[in-house]
């Protein structure tokens, strides 16, 4: 039998190694009610099971159900939340990043799970994160059926954490949205973002650190502190997009052809992913003004416009592509639901000469050999 060395005390426990099981249990107790609030009749069992259970009987009513799945995190935005010790907004960011990818194909997100890795479980902090996830799931009509909190002492600092999530949705095969539906003459409709959302924070953080600005700095252009602006939650578009599908695509007529979720890579790259080969969307920058936070990042960091456009959403978080005859109805429906929207461009046949437009022209992105996007004009002032 090997005795303990002077550097290794006898009786090492999991707690002395840095993992507090009881704290994890307290965190679960604090978040249980928020999680249960997302449950509907299809969710079986309670919180704390080894697996989340979802009654899939409703899929029997589909002629040919297709399951859609997505997973994501929120990137380095968590560093802002940790610095400000405000954690409930991160949950909204996580849900938006995951479920809004699913609705791009017209799928309804059914349920979601989350994963939180942290250096130390602080029950109230973990519960805040999960409460935010649950709130956003409720907005999206998605059940939060399970999750995991893992304590990683020595790998993450005491106040550090990261979050990830995954969701599953369903769409009828003949209702699937995508590039094959998009036609020349379609109108490109922008839906306003709530701010930076959850992409590009490595650039944003570098800019504000270079400028020496503190997160508690009051910024008149923003009407609040810099930190409050940077933590503005990602807008969750799922319910609004699905409502738009139901209102426009019915009675055998389907004028809504696709969506594009504007995340990493910016507007042009993500829009190009949902266009077919041979077509090009021409987007007119003059149809909207850059929100103040994007102007601020550009000015503080001297960031070139091309770099801004391939990194940040610049005020457009989701895009819908509809037939010209349905554009007014789509805009009216979205604005009735409180989603600020406008026509920002049109789809046409790819113009070979557009390829000479330099960074204003994007064709193919993220491994998708699809259509192209041409950005033209200057942003409104």
TrEMBL record:
> Does the UniProt entry include the keyword Ligase?
yes
**Keyword Metal-binding on entry:** no
Which GO-annotated molecular functions does the record name? ATP binding; phosphoribosylamine-glycine ligase activity; phosphoribosylformylglycinamidine cyclo-ligase activity
Q: Gene3D superfamilies recorded for this chain? A: PurM-like C-terminal domain (3.90.650.10), PurM-like, N-terminal domain (3.30.1330.10)
- Top enzyme class, one word, equals ligase
The listed locations are: Cytoplasm
Pathway, per Swiss-Prot/TrEMBL? Purine metabolism; IMP biosynthesis via de novo pathway; 5-amino-1-(5-phospho-D-ribosyl)imidazole from N(2)-formyl-N(1)-(5-phospho-D-ribosyl)glycinamide: step 2/2
- Which segments constitute the PurM-like N-terminal domain? 66-171
EC number(s) per entry: 6.3.3.1
Q: Name one GO biological process term.
A: adenine biosynthetic process
* Domain PurM-like C-terminal, chain residue ranges per copy: 183-347
So what does this thing catalyse?
A: 2-formamido-N(1)-(5-O-phospho-beta-D-ribosyl)acetamidine + ATP = 5-amino-1-(5-phospho-beta-D-ribosyl)imidazole + ADP + phosphate + H(+)
- What family, per the record? Belongs to the AIR synthase family.
Q: Which HAMAP family match?
A: AIRS (MF_00741)
- Its recorded name reads Phosphoribosylformylglycinamidine cyclo-ligase
The lineage is:
Bacteria, Bacillati, Actinomycetota, Actinomycetes, Micrococcales
Task: Report the gene name.
Answer: purM
């Amino acid at each position: 039998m090997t005795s303990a060395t002077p550097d290794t005390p006898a009786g090492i426990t999991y707690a002395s190694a840095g993992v507090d099981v009881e704290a994890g249990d307290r965190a679960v107790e604090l978040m249980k009610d928020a999680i249960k609030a997302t449950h509907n009749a299809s969710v079986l069992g309670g919180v704390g099971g080894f697996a989340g259970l979802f009654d899939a009987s409703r899929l029997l009513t589909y002629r040919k159900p297709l399951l859609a799945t997505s997973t994501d995190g929120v990137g380095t935005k968590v560093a802002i939340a940790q610095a400000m010790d405000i954690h409930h907004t991160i949950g909204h960011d996580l849900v938006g990043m995951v479920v809004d990818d699913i609705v791009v194909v017209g799928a309804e997100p059914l349920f979601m799970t989350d994963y939180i890795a942290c250096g130390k479980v602080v029950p109230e902090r973990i519960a805040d994160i999960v409460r935010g996830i649950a709130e956003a799931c409720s907005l999206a009509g998605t059940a939060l059926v399970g999750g995991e909190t893992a304590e990683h002492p020595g790998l993450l600092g005491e106040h550090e954490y990261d979050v990830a999530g995954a969701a599953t949705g369903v769409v009828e095969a003949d209702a699937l949205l995508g590039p094959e539906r998009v036609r020349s003459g379609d109108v490109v409709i922008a839906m306003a973002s709530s701010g930076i959302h959850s992409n590009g924070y490595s650039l944003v953080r570098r800019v504000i650190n270079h400028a020496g600005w503190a997160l508690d700095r009051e910024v008149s252009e923003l009407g609040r502190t810099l930190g409050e602006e940077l933590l503005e939650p990602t807008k969750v578009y799922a319910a609004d997009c699905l409502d738009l599908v139901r209102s426009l695509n019915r009675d055998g007529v389907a004028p809504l052809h696709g969506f594009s979720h504007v995340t990493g890579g910016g507007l042009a790259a993500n829009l190009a992913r949902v266009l077919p080969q041979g077509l090009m969307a021409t987007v007119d920058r003059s149809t909207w003004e850059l929100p103040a936070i994007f102007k601020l990042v550009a000015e503080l960091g001297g960031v070139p416009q091309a770099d801004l456009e391939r990194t940040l959403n610049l005020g457009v978080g989701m895009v819908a592509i509809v037939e010209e005859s349905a554009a007014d109805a789509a805009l009216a429906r979205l604005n009735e639901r409180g989603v600020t929207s406008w026509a920002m461009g049109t789809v046409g046949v790819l113009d070979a000469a557009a390829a000479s437009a330099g960074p204003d022209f994007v064709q193919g992105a993220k491994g998708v050999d699809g259509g192209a996007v041409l950005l033209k004009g200057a942003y409104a002032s």
